[in-house]
Specification:
By secondary structure, the protein is α/β, with parallel strands linked by helices. The protein folds into 3 domains: 231 residues, no CATH class; 151 residues, Reverse transcriptase/Diguanylate cyclase domain (Alpha-Beta Plaits), CATH 3.30.70; 248 residues, TIM Barrel (Alpha-Beta Barrel), CATH 3.20.20. It is built from 26 helices and 20 strands. Helix 1 crosses helix 7, helix 13 packs across helix 14 and helix 16 runs parallel beside helix 18. The termini are far apart.
Length: 714
């Protein structure tokens, strides 16, 4: 009997075998993931690539492992047996991939995969040993050669698959990283199994004629071709992973862009609260879920009282900071189930689910009132206090779903008319008021085209000579069905519905037209026009004024523009540039309502104004309040020190007139002298017609020959 020989194993081919086994397993796992795609072409392509590449890799791994055996004689391989082992690897790889599309529980899928890999590896090893020119004799520890290595491979495959595919290992990193980490683990266990299996074999040199056999070098060359196929497959996996990563990044970017677009579409950018779109969306969802159950929800419409003076006096930065803080306060005090939204300007909405009836809704409104009324610290350190008005509707008691917000708005305006800083529940009569406002704004849009607006003029009287020094233009509306309407009725509607800019432009042009008529009649009288905040923000304001002055060919020195301090404070730098250009252009600027804003004296030192008007609030107290007289006296002295003329408006009694004259006020304006009147009546009044004026000390003096003018007018 020939002596038995146990091979010694070379570490380099054995290490190469482990590496090839690991790469093959990694490619197999990647292919198993890809074939579960719904794309049939993708599934077929990765199925074929996975079958060929995995088979080539495992077959090359076995050839490399067999080449690691060092025996006293040369190793040879049987060509047909080596080809049979390659075919077996190909078939079993196809079966493993085919079973990957079975609908199994993840644990069952991983167990089946581990068993199949163990079987595939064992079959490749057994066929590889059978392909040797001198097959093993079967002596030695058979369990080391036939039982333990497959068990090691199965355990390694199960652990590697669990690491690569199980969701519980997500914290270890991306799926691709875990896949190749699992492949490394399988390569180590496969190399260990190869070492155990081959080290336990015994061989006897019975080889005689070697014709038709492959030597080791040729077999290794064949295995090299398999290695190349495997490396190309791994490179394909890397390319696929990169493309998949780029697609995922693109998808994430698109998802993030969609999220931001949705957030922008449904979120108020200033306060980060819900906007009207999201509020209406949530309201519809809530109505669908709750149905018509009485008292199931309430809508609170919150509008700030006194916010405009803060925003106008301290600028939009301060106003925005107040709005942000109010939004935070309302959200902090709202219940977890409530939705707080800002729908524009200083208006907020609260959607309250199951508020607890009218009593509970009233408590929510009172909480909002208390929250808003707490002091605010502006960015410049100034403390201000605001209040709010709240309108409440209960569903379904206060109207259908599509009118809840409109009815809450109507209730809020009812609270404002009651003095503000309170709340009001909707009543059917309020719906009529809301419709009336909508009708008025519709009529006002057409009033300019139908020539329903008219300017009335109120004279200004010289405090020393009692002569007319100028007039203030005040707009009136001749409504076709409501009659003469005062600006206090329709100006707030124009401001609310964005018509104030067009209205202010008409007033400016009409005043210039009338000024031209008076100028042609020989009357040099200043005309004062109020400039609105919207006009001052118009980019073409200077062009509009220039066109009006040029078109009507008037002396621009006779045009006075009255502005409030709030107009200047909305955008200080831009307003200062516009006002400076107006002053340089020869137009007189007047500061209206002086003494009622937050920082009048600081603003006065910067504004290029020529005169200021004392607010009627101080004038009406003259004769009854020493403090009011002291304030007026201080304003007049300060203005004269700055070389400014002073106009007092709202003069209604002779005592007020006498006090202002004594304090050296330059011009007086009020009902004591004349009410606002149309231009033709003003001319008659100026000529001393007793039927249209009752000023006790008026002396007409602005016409050279009043008799000739009256005759011409006749």
């Amino acid at each position: 009997m020939e002596p038995h020989s146990s091979p010694s194993l070379l570490w380099a081919p054995l290490l190469l075998s482990a590496l090839l086994a690991g790469l093959s397993f990694g490619f197999l796992l990647h292919s198993l993931r890809k074939i579960r795609s719904r794309d049939k072409i993708n599934t077929l392509g990765w199925g074929l690539a996975g079958t060929v590449t995995t088979a080539c890799g495992l077959w090359s791994s076995q050839v490399a492992a067999l080449s690691a055996m060092a025996l006293p004689w040369e190793l040879y391989f049987r060509t047909e047996a080596l080809g049979l082992s390659a075919a077996a690897c190909l078939v079993t790889s196809a079966l493993v991939l085919a079973s990957g599309r079975l609908s199994l529980h993840p644990r069952g899928r991983m167990t089946l995969l581990a068993g199949q890999i163990g079987l595939l590896w064992s079959l490749c090893l057994w066929l590889g040993l059978r392909s040797l020119g001198t097959p093993p004799t079967g002596h030695g520890a058979w369990w080391l050669a036939l039982v333990l290595p497959p068990m090691v491979v199965v355990v390694g495959a199960l652990a590697a698959a669990w690491l690569a595919l199980s969701p519980r290992w997500h914290q270890m990193g991306p799926a691709n990283s875990r896949l190749w980490l699992g492949a490394l683990l399988f390569g180590l266990t496969a190399g260990m199994a190869q070492d155990i299996a081959l080290g336990a074999q015994h061989f006897v040199d019975t080889l005689g004629n070697v014709n038709g056999l492959l030597d080791v070098t040729t077999a290794q060359l064949a295995a090299s071709a398999g290695c190349i196929v495997l490396l190309l497959g791994v490179f394909g996996v890397m390319v696929d992973n990169r493309a998949h990563g780029q697609n995922r990044m693109l998808a994430n970017s698109l998802s993030e862009a969609n999220r931001r677009l949705r957030e922008q579409a449904l979120t108020d950018p200033l306060t980060r609260l819900a906007n009207r779109n999201l509020f209406e969306e949530r309201l519809e969802e809530l109505l669908t879920r709750l149905g018509d159950e009485p008292g199931s929800l309430a809508v609170l419409f919150i509008d700030l009282d006194g916010f405009k003076p803060v925003n106008d006096s301290f600028g939009h930065v301060a106003g925005d900071s107040v709005l942000r803080e109010i939004g935070q306060r309302l959200k902090a005090t709202a219940r977890p189930t409530d939705l707080v939204a800002r729908i524009g300007g200083d208006e907020f909405l609260v959607l309250a689910e199951m508020p607890g009836g009218t009593l509970g809704a009233g408590k929510l409104a009172q909480t909002a009132l208390d929250t808003v009324s707490k002091p605010y610290v502006l960015p410049n350190g100034v403390h201000v206090t605001l209040s709010c008005s709240v309108g409440i509707v209960m569903y379904p008691d206060h109207g259908p779903s599509q009118k809840l917000i409109a009815n809450a708005d109507a209730a809020m305006y009812a609270a404002k008319r009651a003095g503000g800083s309170t709340f009001a529940f909707f009543e059917p009569s309020m719906d009529h008021d809301a419709r009336e406002q909508l009708q008025l704004q519709h009529d006002l849009r057409s009033a300019l085209d139908r020539h329903e607006l008219e300017l009335y003029y109120q004279p200004k009287i010289d405090g020393y000579s009692s002569q007319i020094t100028g007039v203030e233009a005040l707009v009136r509306w001749h409504h076709p069905t409501r009659g003469l309407m005062m600006p206090g009725v329709f100006i707030p509607i124009a401001e609310r519905f964005g018509l104030i800019g067009a209205l202010g432009g008409w007033v400016l042009d009409e005043a210039c037209r009338q000024l031209q008529i008076w100028q042609n009649q020989g009357l040099r009288m200043r005309v004062s026009v109020n400039l609105t905040p919207q006009q001052l923000q118009q980019d073409d304001l200077m062009d509009r004024i220039h066109r009006a002055v040029t078109r009507h060919k008037i002396d621009r020195r006779l045009l006075t523009l009255e502005i409030t301090e709030s107009v200047f404070m909305q955008n200080k730098d831009a307003a200062l540039r516009v006002l400076t250009r107006l002053a340089q252009d020869g137009i007189t600027l007047s500061l209206d309502d002086f003494g009622t804003e937050y920082s009048s004296y600081a603003v006065l030192s910067e504004m290029p104004v020529h005169q200021l008007k004392i607010d009627r609030h101080f004038v009406m107290k003259l004769g009854t309040s020493l403090k009011a007289e002291a304030i007026v006296d201080g304003i007049i002295h300060m203005a004269h020190a700055l070389n400014l003329r002073v106009v007092a408006e709202g003069v209604e009694t002779e005592e007020q007139r006498d006090t202002l004259v004594r304090l050296a006020c330059d011009e007086l304006q009020g009902y004591l002298f004349a009410k606002p009147m149309p231009a033709d009546r003003l001319t008659l009044w100026a000529m001393g017609d007793d039927t249209v004026h009752g000023s006790p000390d008026f002396r007409p003096s602005l016409y050279d020959d009043g008799t000739e003018l009256l005759t011409a007018m006749s």
